[in-house]
Amino acid sequence: MPRYTSDQYKAKQVGADGLIHYTSDEHDMWAELYQAQISLVNRHMVKEYIEGLAHIDLPSHRIPQCSEISKKLKKLNGWQVEPVPALIGYKRFFTMLANKHFPAASFIRNKDDFAYVKEPDIFHEIFGHTPLLTHPQVAQFSQVIGKLGSNMSAENHPWLARLYWFTIEFGLIKQTDTHNNNAVVPMGSGLASSPTELVYASSSAIPRRKLFDVIDLLTTPYRIDIKQPIYYVLESFDQLTDISQRDLFDDIKQAQCVGLQDPHHLLAQAC
Predict the structure, then answer these.
(1) Which one of 83, 123, 175, 262 is separated from 50 by 20 to 30 angstroms, measured CA to CA?
(2) Domain boundaries, position 184
(3) pTM of the model
């Protein structure tokens, strides 16, 4: 999704040495977030995320540099993480994904936003996103979304963004558990990086968990300031490949003809 900063947060700038210099308080915030989240993701997240997290091998006590993560991703699949200085819109966001550049907001949240921050911060970008960028189908799907978005007109961008939101950011997925049963587990980066919504998405009876349907998803509005009332469930990572091979331009046209669902109705259904 487009990366931005509000008046509350200011982007950190890359120095002449090519590094972003964080304060000790900012490193301490990363360490607190990491310690709060690491046991939760090991307990609740899809196993491919956990495997990717081990592969990336993030430091627990300090904010990593994007260049550190990029070295590992480039060697694996050609992706890299690029800090973005401030507001970027849909066009730049999709173009970066198309070129295997993941845009990373450079600031880190403060204590008031410890549980959830509306603006994606460096903890969300690195801890939330990069582990699954090691997965070939997630990486390929992200690039396909980027290529589509970079070739679409601006009025279509919010429709495509909903597909990214309900999969890469806040998707759930079926996974075979130790008893050989299909369990529904969190997959999305917004869940992996949230100390409260990860547990909510995993076990709360409040939200609706819907089987994945492209047109239904494209017509479902979302909000960034609340826990999601609706999650969509992928059958497997193979389904991301299936979605990539659809005519998503046509899907968006169909969704536009249907129109957006009433957000108040969706919230009422989830309560």
Answers:
(1) 83
(2) 24-270
(3) 0.92
